[in-house]
Design goal:
Elements (H helix, E strand, L loop, with lengths): L6 H6 L3 H20 L2 H5 L5 H12 L3 H16 L4 H32 L3 H8 L4 H19 L5 H13 L6
Length: 172
């Protein structure tokens, strides 16, 4: 330290460990971009050089080259504001979580209907039209017969699809 440097200036700088953590976080963020489906990637605002580097990473098959490309993408992301990218990935993650939650809800409905729970049928009758309810009853009956005969669950799958159509946003 020279005579004209203030010791407090050094306290404000991030430590070497913190810089490494930030760099690793940006590399991870960049690799999340690489693993996104093309349509989702197109919806995220990215500088052209980052978009090109991500596209190049998708074509790379060699492990060592992938590691270098990951470092390069992290380096490019250091020059841009990464918060809008993180926000876009978080929004996408929330949509995925809601979709998965809805799918699990539909699976619970299907399982309750195949088990022929009276409460499930009563609750479902208040949510769907009578014609749809009759189709669901028929599919549930077929699914029970398939289970008893140890056949592939074709009717159970069809029941799930019909529930998805009948209950677009219902949660249970």
């Amino acid at each position: 330290m020279t005579a004209h440097e203030d010791p407090q200036d050094f306290d404000e700088l991030p430590s070497k460990s913190e810089l490494k953590r930030q760099s690793r976080d940006l590399q991870d963020l960049g690799w999340q971009l690489v693993e996104l489906p093309e349509a989702d990637l197109a919806a995220i605002p990215l500088p052209e050089d980052v978009r090109d580097a991500v596209a190049a990473a998708r074509r790379i098959t060699s492990g060592g080259a992938k590691a270098r490309q990951r470092l390069y993408i992290g380096k490019l992301l250091r020059r841009v504001d990464a918060e809008p990218i993180r926000a876009a990935l978080d929004r996408r993650g929330e949509v995925d979580r809601r979709r998965i939650q809805h799918e699990k809800s539909l699976e619970r409905w299907r399982d309750r209907l195949v088990a022929d729970e009276a409460a499930a049928w009563t609750e479902l009758a208040s949510l769907v039209e009578p014609g749809v309810l009759q189709q669901l009853r028929s599919l549930a009956r077929q699914a029970r017969a398939e289970q008893a005969a140890v056949r592939p669950p074709a009717s159970s799958r069809q029941l799930f699809r019909r529930l998805r159509e009948a209950l677009p946003g219902a949660e249970t």
